[in-house]
From TrEMBL:
Top-level taxon in the UniProt lineage: Eukaryota
Signal sequence extent: none
Cited CDD domains: AAT_like
GO cellular component terms attached to this protein's record: cytosol
UniProt organism field: Nipponaphis monzeni
Name by which UniProt lists this protein: aspartate transaminase
Length: 412
C-alpha cells in the first residue's frame, strides 16, 4: 500500500515565505549577505550568543545528574513554580491552594499547543482572536487544535506604525462570549508595539465584561523595557483583578537557549472544584502527545532561577543585552533620518524589543534581498540584534534606497 495524501491542507503562506527566505540566505554566495530573519540574540560580531551563566549552570547540572529517569507528565514541579513566580512574584499561597499551577512544556510553542488543545477539547471553545499582525505560528496552532472561527482584532496602523488601540477595544467588545483572546504581553511580534498600562486596563475591563478567555503569550519578558517585572505588569494586573487566565511562557530568548525547548503553561484561576479535573485533562493531552517533557534545559534554567548568585549574573547579563538593543535602535533611527529615509522613524525608539517592522511590500522585500543581500522576515520584520557597528550604515542605506525607489515607481 502506498501513502497518499487525501486532503491538501491550507498553506501557511508567511511561514513558508520565512523558510524560503532562510533557504535563499543559505544559497546566497555574496560576502555582503546579512541575516536579520529569526529572533535570536546576536553579539556585536554577528555570531549567535550564549550567555556565560547558562554555560556555568549547564556544567553544574551535568555534574549533579545521576541518571536520566523520566520526568512526570507535568514536568519538574520546582521549575513550573519558579516560572510562574518569575511572572507573578510571590505566589506561595496560591501555589499551595493550587489556584496557580503549571505544566512544563516543549517551548512556548508547545505551551500554546497544549493550551489550545485543552480549550477546544475540554472547554468547547471554537473561536480565537489574534492581533493583526501576529506571530506566524499562532493561527496554524489553533487551527490544528480544531478552532473553526479564526478571527483577528485590529492592532497596528501601517501608515503611522502605531498601536490601533481604538480598533482593539472595538473588536474585542464585539467578540462573542467564551472566545479565546491571544494577548502578547510585551515586545509584540512582529511589531514590538505594546499597549500602555492604561490601555491594558481597558482591555482587561472589556475581556471581563464580554466573558472572554485571555491566553497570554510571553516570549520576551524583559526585552521590551529592560525590566523583568515591568514587562510582566499586565499579567499581574489581570491576576489582581481576579480574572482567570492561561499563559504560555517561552524561555528560549531570555536565556539564549533556543534548541533546548523550555516552556511553561500557567493556569491562574479562582478556587474551584474543577482544578483537579483541569489538571487531569491537560495531563491526558500531554500523555498522548509526548508523554513527558525533557530534562536538561529545564534543569539549567531552574538552577539559574533558584540560585541567587546565578540569578544575579543572569539578570545583569540580561540588562547588558537590552541596553545594547536600545543603543542599536537609537543609532539605526539616526542613520535613517540622516539619510533622509522616507517616512517617520520615531517608532523605532518609541518602542523596545528584538524587532523592527519595516512593513515592506513583496516587491520591496525582493529588491532589498537581491540588490543588498539583506534578509528579513516578511513583511519586513528585522532582528535588531543582527545590526552592529559594521553593518548598520549599510542596512540604513539599503532601507532608504529601497523606499526612495518605491516613491519613484522604480519598485512597484
Amino acid at each position: 500500500m502506498s501513502l497518499r495524501v487525501k486532503c491538501v491542507p491550507e498553506a501557511f503562506d508567511i511561514e513558508e515565505e520565512i523558510i524560503k527566505t532562510m533557504n535563499d540566505y543559505d544559497k546566497d554566495v555574496s560576502l555582503k549577505k546579512i541575516d536579520l530573519i529569526i529572533g535570536v540574540y546576536r553579539s556585536e560580531d554577528g555570531d549567535l550568543y550564549l550567555l556565560p551563566v547558562v554555560k556555568k549552570a549547564q556544567q553544574m547540572v551535568l555534574e549533579e545528574t545521576l541518571n536520566h529517569n523520566y520526568l512526570s507528565i507535568r514536568g519538574i514541579d520546582e521549575f513550573t513554580k519558579a516560572a510562574c513566580t518569575l511572572i507573578l512574584g510571590d505566589i506561595e499561597k496560591q501555589w499551595n491552594d493550587e489556584t496557580i499551577f503549571g505544566f512544563q512544556c516543549i517551548g512556548g510553542a508547545g505551551a500554546l499547543k497544549i493550551g489550545a488543545d485543552f480549550l477546544h477539547q475540554f472547554m468547547e471553545c471554537t473561536t480565537v482572536y489574534f492581533s493583526d499582525p501576529t506571530w506566524v505560528n499562532h493561527e496554524p496552532t489553533f487551527k490544528s487544535s480544531g478552532f473553526k472561527n479564526i478571527r483577528k482584532y485590529r492592532y497596528f496602523k501601517k501608515e503611522s506604525k502605531s498601536l490601533d488601540i481604538e480598533g482593539i477595544w472595538e473588536d474585542l467588545s464585539n467578540a462573542p462570549e467564551n472566545s479565546v483572546v491571544i494577548l502578547q504581553v510585551c515586545g509584540h511580534n512582529p511589531t514590538c508595539v505594546d499597549p500602555t498600562k492604561e490601555q491594558w486596563k481597558k482591555i482587561a475591563k472589556i475581556i471581563k465584561e464580554q466573558k472572554l478567555i485571555p491566553f497570554f503569550d510571553i516570549a520576551y519578558q524583559g526585552f521590551a523595557s529592560g525590566d523583568l517585572i515591568e514587562d510582566a505588569w499586565v499579567i499581574r494586573y489581570f491576576f489582581q483583578e481576579g480574572i482567570d487566565f492561561i499563559c504560555a511562557q517561552s524561555f528560549s530568548k531570555i536565556f539564549t537557549m533556543y534548541n533546548e525547548r523550555v516552556g511553561n503553561l500557567m493556569f491562574s484561576m479562582k478556587p474551584s472544584s474543577e482544578i483537579d479535573v483541569i489538571k487531569s485533562n491537560v495531563s491526558k493531552i500531554v500523555r498522548c502527545m509526548y508523554s513527558n517533557p525533557p530534562n536538561h534545559g529545564t534543569k539549567t534554567i531552574l538552577k539559574i532561577l533558584t540560585n541567587s548568585e546565578l540569578y544575579n549574573e543572569w539578570s545583569n547579563s540580561f540588562t547588558i543585552m537590552v541596553s545594547r538593543i536600545k543603543t542599536i535602535r537609537i543609532d539605526f533611527r539616526k542613520a535613517l533620518e540622516d539619510l533622509g529615509a522616507p517616512g517617520k522613524w520615531n517608532y523605532i525608539t518609541d518602542h523596545g524589543g528584538m524587532f523592527i517592522l519595516l512593513n515592506f511590500t513583496s516587491n520591496q522585500l525582493e529588491y532589498f534581498q537581491q540588490f543588498y543581500h539583506i534578509y528579513v522576515s516578511p513583511p519586513g520584520r528585522l532582528n535588531v540584534t543582527g545590526l552592529n557597528t559594521n553593518n548598520i550604515d549599510y542596512i540604513a542605506k539599503a532601507v532608504t534606497e529601497t523606499l526612495k525607489k518605491s516613491e519613484k515607481n522604480i519598485i512597484m
